[in-house]
Each structure stands twice: as structure tokens, then as C-alpha cells.
Design goal:
The chain is mainly α. The longest helix has 21 residues. It is rod-shaped, with a radius of gyration of 31 Å. 0% of the residues are buried.
């Protein structure tokens, strides 16, 4: 049985571009939330006794 309405093939081009744009925006958002700052670390140096003034 044939349908009364003809089947219209839609172009996949715009859908692919919209998907890529959403993916790009998602990646940029994810990169903006990643913490790139390193925490401060204390470095303890050994000081010889003669420099302490003893």
C-alpha cells in the first residue's frame, strides 16, 4: 500500500553541522571547568648549623 504523501528525503548536512557545533561548545565548556592551577607545595630546605648562628 502506497502512502498518500510522498517521502521527502532530508539532507543530513545541517544536522551534522549542528552536532559538531554542540560538540565543540561542550568541549570548550569542559576545558573551562578543568582546574589547571597547581596547588602550592612547601619545600623544606636543610640549613647547616653554622648558618643558624649557633
Amino acid at each position: 500500500m502506497r502512502s498518500r504523501y510522498p517521502v521527502r528525503k532530508s539532507s543530513k548536512g545541517p544536522l551534522i553541522w549542528i552536532l559538531l557545533l554542540v560538540l565543540l561548545i561542550g568541549c570548550l565548556w569542559w576545558l573551562s571547568t578543568v582546574d589547571t592551577e597547581k596547588p602550592l607545595t612547601r619545600v623544606e630546605k636543610t640549613i647547616p648549623n653554622d648558618r643558624l648562628g649557633k
